[in-house]
Design goal:
Layout: H1 7-12, H2 17-28, H3 37-47, E1 53-56, E2 62-66, E3 73-79, E4 84-90, E5 95-101, E6 113-118, E7 121-128, E8 149-151, H4 157-162, E9 170-173, E10 178-180, E11 184-187, H5 190-208, E12 216-222, H6 230-239, E13 243-251, H7 260-263, E14 273-276, H8 282-294, E15 300-303, H9 311-316, E16 324-331, E17 339-342, H10 343-357
Parallel strand pairs: 3-12, 3-13, 13-16, 14-15
Antiparallel strand pairs: 1-2, 2-12, 4-5, 4-9, 5-8, 6-7, 6-9, 7-8, 10-11, 11-17, 14-16
Helix pairs in contact: 2-3, 2-5, 5-10, 8-10
Length: 371
């Protein structure tokens, strides 16, 4: 910490016990793409004490607003949806085949417990898989969309349908949140509900530290990122922001079977990741770097080539071009049920967004050729 660093932020940027309780509830709650509303209710209930107004669009993107009357608008954004499955085919024997809703990994599915969501409530099921004793041959068949299936304990299609399950029912994993070695947060859907948690914590800090911003701040938790950045695309055109700072996860590349030559050298515990990509506006990104250095916030760098693959792209190319930047959180085992993020990285992403907001001026011009 520098001498200029305020003690209030140094203390309060660390996730509190109450905040952690919310994070656990929020991660454990299912919010599959297209069906995010329960998670959005939780998020808005947590956020409401820290904002002046709220808004929900037609597809479920939730927004908390500070200074809604201001003309200059700054967005901080994450996405709320998690990967899941759709019921696609029910056999006459009561077994269920699925298709993806987002980037669900078929290789991790066998033996996982799931909830099939129906109008009657969730139905428990498991991804079945033949026992090792029954598999034979020189080359074993690997899990694929053609052979993974759900078993909910029924013996006929009619029995499955009586439970309220039908083609199009959405399926989520059952795995729950935990803290590992007092160092990592672990759970499904940390991609990217941990982002929604972090931007909500920024709002909490602004309120608790009585910080008055000279612009309108829009805390945005978008839907449908996992299927093409659709929620961000819609809300960007509604808000018409002047600046957008997006937070999402990126890959920790320190575990086996990951090629650093192609994926970069990034690690949990070494700080937020700042990206270089065409959608990342040069001067806004430079501000993030300057703020990180000034406040002694550790950070890492990532080259994202043609596009970031995050909601940054949707905001950047909306409304004739919105200066946008990306702050990523390193994460292990993306799109599995044991996604892991480092506690200190979470704190530091919160700090970086918070300190950056205190640096942005009303009406600030980020155009490249005016500097």
């Amino acid at each position: 910490m520098t001498k200029k660093k305020s003690k209030e932020v140094q203390h309060q940027a660390v996730v509190t016990k109450e905040s952690l309780k919310f994070l656990e509830r929020y991660i454990n709650n299912p919010s599959p793409t297209g069906f995010e509303w329960e998670g959005q209710r939780l998020w808005l209930d947590y956020l409401k004490p820290y904002v002046d107004d709220t808004y929900i669009d037609n597809y479920g993107t939730a927004v908390g607003i500070i200074n809604p009357e201001a003309k200059y608008k700054v967005v901080i954004e994450a996405h709320a949806d998690e990967i899941s499955w759709f019921v696609n085919y029910i056999t006459k024997d009561g077994l269920i085949y699925v298709i993806r809703n987002g980037g669900s990994d078929h290789q991790i599915a066998p033996s996982k417990r799931v909830n099939i969501h129906t109008e009657k409530g969730p139905v428990k099921a498991v991804f079945g898989w033949p026992a090792i004793h029954t598999r034979s041959g020189e080359k074993e068949e690997a899990p694929s969309l053609k052979n993974i299936f759900l078993d909910c304990g029924c013996t006929s299609k009619e029995e499955v349908e009586e439970l309220g399950i039908h083609v199009g029912s959405v399926v989520t994993y059952e795995d729950e949140f935990m803290v590992l070695n007092d160092r990592y947060y672990v759970g499904r859907a940390l991609d990217n509900r941990v982002g929604g948690f972090m931007i909500a914590e920024v709002a909490r800090l602004l309120k608790e530290n009585s910080k008055k911003l000279p612009f309108g701040l829009y805390i945005v938790n978008s839907v449908q990122e996992e299927i093409g950045l659709r929620g961000a695309e819609m809300i960007a055109n509604y808000i018409k922001p002047n600046v957008a700072i997006v937070t999402d996860v990126t890959h920790d590349t320190q575990t086996p079977m990951i090629n650093k030559v192609t994926q970069g050298d990034l690690a949990c515990g070494k700080g937020p990741v700042l990206s270089y990509a065409p959608a990342v506006q040069i001067n806004l990104n430079k501000m993030l770097i300057d703020v990180a250095k000034k406040n002694e916030i550790p950070f890492q760098r990532q080259a994202s080539s043609r596009y970031t693959g995050t909601d940054t792209d949707a905001f950047a190319y909306s409304n004739g071009g919105v200066p946008s930047a990306l702050i990523s959180l390193p994460l292990r085992y993306m799109h599995t049920t044991v996604e892991m993020v480092h506690k200190e990285d979470v704190d530091n992403v919160i700090r970086l967004i918070y300190e950056t907001l205190l640096t942005i001026e009303d009406g600030q011009d980020f155009r490249t050729f005016t500097k």
